[in-house]
């Protein structure tokens, strides 16, 4: 564990975060972190339960004098998004996250930090091991696979939890108290095509889009950030229309919940068009950079001539439909909420495009706080992709969390926040997917709220956690635990 991380305050929070970050914990591969968190609870002599899908529940009795307070659930998810810069050599399945302090921020070296939701998990761990923090009876619920399907929350069984109040610690601005969130659904388009031989007198190019900020496909979708897959398609669209460009392969983006930062394509053109193609492409690059100069100042688009042209390419007619379907497919903010100011209602992230060797896959994550709007946009995408001949699957749907402005625990938290900070918090709904909507369907009588420390750049290698905000969050959490109302 880094000495500089060990020395941060509050030590209980940061030491547990560092210990957690030493354990590889990719979504759907949580075996090691599940074993880690179970061992943590067992060493404390607490009741530890692992359910059928590997969620972990640790129970801690109320501290003296708090036995008459409502029992609570402290909830966070164990998995983290794995993203790294292209030039970073790192194996997420074998290595712990390498952290460092940068002023008021904790960052990782070229990778995601895992503060989403590692800081929330670490805070729960710190409460469980504390002998001085006053609290009611606690059930610590550590879910798995939040980032790629929320299957942990979706498969939690009714009747397992006895808590009456749930505190979700997965919000990413310390002045916000969250009372609602968007739901989501995966849209996956797949097609096969017969490759054809590259024509004679062709030359190959590798087109690379990189340097984009990326980010959380819910919380950052409104920021006007570049999507590498859409940028690449603009280049391919123009090159195809004007020079007969043909695609050999594309690899763009990685995870559904991360705005894609990079895309690489290998293409061919007739050698006679070489000079004109490079000139035309540079004009388009200049236009795209001018459009995104404020939000994406580090965008790079390069064209590297290949020593040897690819042997096989996508047929022209299949490519005609592909680039047009990609151009038509919605990406980014689709509709703003009419009920909450400055809240995105519905959006889509064209997250991953993989093309080559006769196969095409396009992966999207569609979000909305309105269920009917979520599926309407999913069907809009389905239509765009089916018109090019794709088989489209709509799957993995999870519900949003309907805001309850009359929540009793909300009133308690607002009062405590104002007492500690001298101002009212922002009571918000967010465009990210929180597990509260799913858990609320299983435990409809449970009062739920979400809060957390300030984390910026989640789901990207620019992810960073504020040190001062973590201190503020910790003080708030401790006070909340001491103020849970009586049964």
TrEMBL record:
Keyword Cytoplasm: no
Residues covered by the Peptidase M20 dimerisation domain: 208-294
Keywords tagged on the record: Hydrolase
UniProt cross-references to NCBIfam families, sorted A to Z: aa-his-dipept (TIGR01893)
Entry protein name: Cytosol nonspecific dipeptidase
Pfam families: M20_dimer, Peptidase_M20
The UniProt record lists the keyword Hydrolase: yes
């Amino acid at each position: 564990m880094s000495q500089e991380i060990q020395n941060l305050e509050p030590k209980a929070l940061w030491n547990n975060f560092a210990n957690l970050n030493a354990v590889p914990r990719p979504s759907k591969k949580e075996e090691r972190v599940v074993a880690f968190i179970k061992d943590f609870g067992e060493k404390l002599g607490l009741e530890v339960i692992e359910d059928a899908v590997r969620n972990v529940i640790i129970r801690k009795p109320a501290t003296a004098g708090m036995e008459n307070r409502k029992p609570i659930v402290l909830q966070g998810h164990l998995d983290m998004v794995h993203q790294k810069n292209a030039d970073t050599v790192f194996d997420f399945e074998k290595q712990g996250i390498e952290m460092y302090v940068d002023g008021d921020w904790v960052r990782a070296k070229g990778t995601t930090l895992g503060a989403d939701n590692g800081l929330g998990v670490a805070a729960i761990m710190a409460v469980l091991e504390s002998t001085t923090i006053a609290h009611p009876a606690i059930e610590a619920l550590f879910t798995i696979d939040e980032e790629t399907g929320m299957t942990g929350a979706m498969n939690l069984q009714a009747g397992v939890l006895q808590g009456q109040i749930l505190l979700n610690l997965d919000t990413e601005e310390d002045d916000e108290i969250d009372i609602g969130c968007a739901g989501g659904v995966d849209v996956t388009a797949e097609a096969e095509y017969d490759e054809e031989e590259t024509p004679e007198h062709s030359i190959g190019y590798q087109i690379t889009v990189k340097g984009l900020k990326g980010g959380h496909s819910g919380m950052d979708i409104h920021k006007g950030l570049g999507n590498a897959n859409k940028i690449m398609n603009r280049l391919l669209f123009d090159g195809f229309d004007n020079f007969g460009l043909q695609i050999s392969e594309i690899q763009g983006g990685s995870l559904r919940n991360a705005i894609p930062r990079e895309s690489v394509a290998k293409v061919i053109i007739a050698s006679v068009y070489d000079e004109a193609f490079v000139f035309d492409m540079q004009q388009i690059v200049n236009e795209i950079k001018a459009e995104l100069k404020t939000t994406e100042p580090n965008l790079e688009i390069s064209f590297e001539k290949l020593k040897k042209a690819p042997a096989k390419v996508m047929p022209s007619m299949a490519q005609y439909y592909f680039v047009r379907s990609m151009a038509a497919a919605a990406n980014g903010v689709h509709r703003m909420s009419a009920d909450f100011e400055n809240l995105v209602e519905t959006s889509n992230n064209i997250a991953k495009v993989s093309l080559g060797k006769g196969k095409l896959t396009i992966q999207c994550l569609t979000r909305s706080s309105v269920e009917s709007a979520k599926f309407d946009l999913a069907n809009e995408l389905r239509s765009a992709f089916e018109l090019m001949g794709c088989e489209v699957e709509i799957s993995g749907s999870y519900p949003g969390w309907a805001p309850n402005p009359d929540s009793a625990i909300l009133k308690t938290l607002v009062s405590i926040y104002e007492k500690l900070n001298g101002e009212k918090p922002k009571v918000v709904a967010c465009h990210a997917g929180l597990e509260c909507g799913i858990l609320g369907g299983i435990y409809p009588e449970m009062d739920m709220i979400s809060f957390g420390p300030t984390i910026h750049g989640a789901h990207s290698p620019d992810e960073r956690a504020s040190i001062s905000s973590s201190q503020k969050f910790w003080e708030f959490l401790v006070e909340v635990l001491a103020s849970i109302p009586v049964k």
